[in-house]
């Protein structure tokens, strides 16, 4: 309720002035405030229209205080949550280029927020080609091997979102073996039986997106990687995995249960073999 009242009472204009201050405590308190205000979906467009996007992008480079960086990127993610127009405005303002430049040298807490923001932006079918052309996979693929689980998961989710209904799969082919052992090793690692069911689920779902994209070169690379085929086959034959998945697991939203998903992938892969 108060989030809406601040906007209705024209509180955004003075808050933006505080955000542009050179005094660290003021910057920190104001960016924390706008983050909280941005949580309400009705406030997303007013915040963007007030001119917050560019100052928030500038704060991503605020190396002296990771809390400011976290609040800034989290606000941008909130602003992108429910509107295609807002996502486009954030990308056009240069947020993705800034994230791409900074993401490998910011603290893990900031990486967590940055990868979550990319995952949200990657939901946009219109923006996917642009994100891929920016080379975003070059930074996401290595982060799937991060020591921080949230960064791993967010990076994988972003790759999965980018892979769904993509118009051109050549950027995925380009990162098949590099950087950091590439997309191939990301899929092998996530499908490993020692991983959580949630991560295995993300791996299987991402493979299904690639197979549905029907890019001959990418499909061939997947079908000829025995570690991937063997892992998906194991999952398809493991009904116990359904009982291991936590009931609140967000991976449950990925087109059905993991075993049913794996069975579809195995069937699709067998069709690939039949065509050879």
TrEMBL record:
Membrane topology: Lipid-anchor
Record-linked PROSITE patterns: ARM_REPEAT (PS50176)
Keywords, comma-separated and alphabetical: Lipoprotein, Membrane, Repeat, Vacuole
InterPro entries the record matches: ARM-like, ARM-type_fold, Armadillo, Vac8
Cross-referenced SMART domains: ARM (SM00185)
Pfam short name (any one): Arm
Listed transmembrane segments: none
Positions annotated as ARM repeat: 10-52, 51-94
GO biological process, one term: autophagosome assembly
Keyword Repeat in annotation: yes
Top-rank taxon: Eukaryota
Signal sequence range: none
One GO CC annotation: fungal-type vacuole membrane
Compartments it resides in: Vacuole membrane
Family to which this protein belongs: Belongs to the beta-catenin family.
PANTHER family, A to Z: VACUOLAR PROTEIN 8
Protein name (Swiss-Prot/TrEMBL): Vacuolar protein 8
């Amino acid at each position: 309720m108060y989030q809406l009242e601040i906007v209705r009472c024209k509180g955004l204009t003075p808050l933006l002035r505080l955000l542009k201050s050179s005094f660290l405590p003021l910057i920190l308190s104001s960016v924390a405030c706008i983050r909280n205000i941005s949580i309400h979906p009705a406030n997303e467009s007013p915040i963007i229209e007030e001119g917050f996007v560019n100052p928030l992008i500038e704060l991503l480079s605020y190396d002296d205080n990771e809390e400011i960086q976290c609040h800034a990127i989290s606000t941008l993610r909130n602003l992108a949550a429910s509107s295609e127009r807002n996502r486009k405005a954030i990308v056009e303002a240069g947020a993705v280029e800034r994230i791409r430049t900074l993401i490998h040298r910011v603290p893990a807490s900031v990486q967590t927020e940055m990868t979550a923001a990319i995952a949200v932006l990657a939901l946009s079918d219109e923006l996917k080609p642009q994100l891929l052309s920016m080379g975003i996979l070059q930074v996401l693929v290595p982060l799937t091997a991060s020591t921080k689980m949230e960064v791993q998961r967010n990076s994988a989710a972003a790759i999965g979102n980018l892979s769904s209904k993509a118009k051109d799969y050549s950027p995925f082919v380009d990162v098949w073996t590099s950087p950091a052992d590439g997309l191939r090793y990301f899929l092998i690692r996530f499908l490993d039986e020692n991983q959580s069911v949630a991560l295995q689920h993300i791996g299987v779902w991402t493979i299904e997106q690639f197979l549905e994209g029907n890019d001959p070169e990418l499909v061939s690379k997947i079908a000829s990687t025995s570690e991937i085929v063997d892992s998906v086959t194991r999952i398809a034959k493991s009904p116990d995995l359904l009982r291991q998945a936590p009931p609140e697991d967000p991976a449950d939203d990925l087109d059905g249960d993991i075993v049913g998903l794996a069975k579809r992938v195995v069937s699709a892969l067998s069709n690939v073999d039949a065509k050879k």
